[in-house]
């Protein structure tokens, strides 16, 4: 018997790619090749490198070529639910990128290039459901980050540099093998800061609203004192598993 060959996958032609371009809600041009049974990066789409958004999610792609740097207009790149073990260094040249989703792949810490820290305009980074046992402290250089998904990996620590990101609002680290901290307050201080973020100042609340907020806060504090859970991490519904049926509509994953 001969060698068993892997799946060939669907061949994407330039015509198919052109017919897959959609206009997004904000007027951008989105090339949507998600759920197409693709096993290799379609070289023909390099001729459409002027698109604003590229969706290759839910395929069987194992490698993203260095030629991804041709997509200099990209603001939104979705590669979730493929079979990627690494990302090319050239991804760091996509200076307009503000959304990058590579969750539900096979990414290892070695496969996460240092050049990802060059994405200075990145707002959302989803690295969940991978094989990461560490992340580079240099991710703390991404000062525009608002949301980070690190759930379902093999992480045992989170770099302190992430704790100091000035605009970070959501951090999902669920289901990682973190050791039980010896000093809970020290370990989760930055996450508490995010959880207690106020969108208005107390002086701007009416008396009844202020009292309601204070009562809820006291109730939460009492609950924490009675049933401490050092290993529990905050959960943010916007950074859940990408294969959730609740998020099947790709529009719900986009920044508004």
Automatic annotation (TrEMBL):
Residue segments, region Disordered: 220-256
Polar residues composition-biased segments: 223-232
Keywords in alphabetical order: Leucine-rich repeat, Repeat
PROSITE patterns in the cross-refs: LRR (PS51450)
Domain Disease resistance R13L4/SHOC-2-like LRR: 68-200
GO CC field: cytoplasm
Transmembrane segments: none
Regions annotated as coiled coil: none
InterPro entries tied to this protein: Leu-rich_rpt, Leu-rich_rpt_typical-subtyp, LRR_dom_sf, LRR_domain-containing, LRR_R13L4/SHOC2-like
Name of the protein in its database record: LRC18 protein
Species whose genome carries this gene: Oreotrochilus melanogaster
